[in-house]
Design goal:
Layout (H helix, E strand, L loop, with lengths): L8 E6 L3 E6 L3 E6 L4 E2 L1 H15 L4 E6 L5 E2 L1 H7 L8 E7 L3 H14 L4 E5 L2 H12 L2
Parallel strand pairs: 3-5, 4-6, 5-7, 7-8
Antiparallel strand pairs: 1-2, 2-3
Helix pairs in contact: 1-2
């Protein structure tokens, strides 16, 4: 069994509603701030930050949800689109809340994103999965 390793942060961009970080292993972490209301404009800002950090390189996304926050229907739909997943290999969505993970799994089933998505309870489980996906 492989030993879990937490990738180091290479660079970060602080936005109003999220912190976007480039981690080792070409992982982009999107850490949503508590009580954030995520709208379409925010999803577009996340994409700009990803490009600023990683250019047009292939990458995986570690999307960490807050304990309390809201994403609009339009922002959810954009998040599932090719535009929002440009150059992404896979996306791990992290939530410590079981109810939220159920909603995330529904989102994945209903919106059928073009990029592989999976929900996890722990950040480390998501990182391990993304590293495994990259190795395939």
């Amino acid at each position: 069994m492989l030993e879990s390793k937490t990738p180091k942060i290479i660079n970060s961009i602080e936005l109003e509603k999220a912190e976007i970080s480039l981690l080792e292993n070409n992982i982009i972490e999107i850490l949503i701030k508590e009580y954030a209301l995520i709208e379409v404009i925010d999803v577009k800002k996340f994409q700009e930050a990803k490009r600023a950090l990683n250019g047009n390189k292939k990458h995986c996304v570690l999307f960490v949800t807050p304990k309390t926050g809201i994403i609009t229907k339009e922002a959810r739909e954009l998040s599932a689109s090719l535009e929002a997943n440009e150059n992404a290999i896979a996306k791990a969505i992290i939530s410590s809340n079981l109810g939220m993970r159920i909603i995330i799994n529904f989102f994945i089933s209903y919106n059928r994103p073009d990029v592989l998505h999976k929900a996890f309870e722990s950040r480390q489980d998501g990182i391990d999965w993304l590293i495994k996906i990259q190795g395939q």
